Fold this protein.
Amino acid sequence: MIETEEAVRKFVEGEEEAFGPIVRHWERKIYNLAWRMVGNREDAQDIVQETFLSVFKSIKSLRDPGSFSTWLYRIALNHCRARRRSARFLLIDSGPDQAGDEGSPLFRIPAEERGDSVEIRDIIQKALAGLSEEHRSAVVLKEYVGLSLEELANVMDCPLSTAKSRLYHGLRGVQRNLKRLGIIK
Amino acid sequence: MQCDEIRERFAELLYEEGEAPAANADIDILDHLQTCLACRREFEELKQTREYLQAWKDEPPLRSVRIPRHEIHLNRRNGWVYARYAAIAAMALICILALADTELTWNKSGFSISTHIFPRNTSDHNYYTKTEVRDVMKLALDDSEFRMNEVNYLMLQKALATVEQDRLMDLQLVRSQAAQNRNRN
């Protein structure tokens, strides 16, 4: 993390070469975050590209290099949100994710991603897809990115208790979706 | 504590991130779990859900991030653009300050025009008082009257000299005519 801070500081001071290490350190994390948020590898890759382009353009406005990771995750989540709002991933009204009602529609998964074989990843993807934006972000940031509850609250820009609540409801949503898919009894 | 309140805090126990003092916070939840079958069951299901979520493993990105060449150029140019704007702004500011503090002065030292970037302290005693201005004006008027009188005097003197000269010439003529008459007789 200190290396990132150093690289960010150098880049802000005008050393363009410092951007390479920043990308190398973070692109995998951002890619996997985006993949779980949008459920499509190509779109996740586009989000990584857009995220780092945004970072490249506006990193000079970042006052505290120590808060780079929080800032980066926020940018990535904003791009994920924008991507999900786009026509391809337009949500069909999914209703409350805690309802657990039969046939609650998940978000549309592109045809090329859909396969007959029910892989674990696809099931998780479907279970996550039924969550609201906030609950999904909380689950992904905690389970896959590995943020602490405090970091999660910072990235989501909400009080700690709200972050805990969102995470709990997110996990509950996943649990219900998994039950509906017959994975958990 | 109510079941709802406990469940909202499940994240603390699930991720072992209770607030300080951690032990007390967790004990509350654990005590409740021992007595409440529904909450215990839900907690176990959430643990199971977490385990299931972990089955979606990270993968490397499809491609490396590339920053377009024009963005790099734009980024490099930004510094110069800002420097140019800063120079123009500084010049404009100096002009405004200079114009705002341009001074036309007529005092005991004489008439002057001066421009200052910053206001300067001026001492009042350099300037004429009302009485002094009146005296100066009177002096100037007197002076102009004196000069006028002097011019008139000189003109009169010149006129008198011309008259005198004419008189002498007439006298000379009369004398010469008288001499001619005497000789003829």
Summary: Chain B touches chain A at residues 7-12, 14-15, 17, 19, 42, 45-46, 48-50, 52-56, 58-68, 71-72, 75-76, 79 (CB under 8 Å).
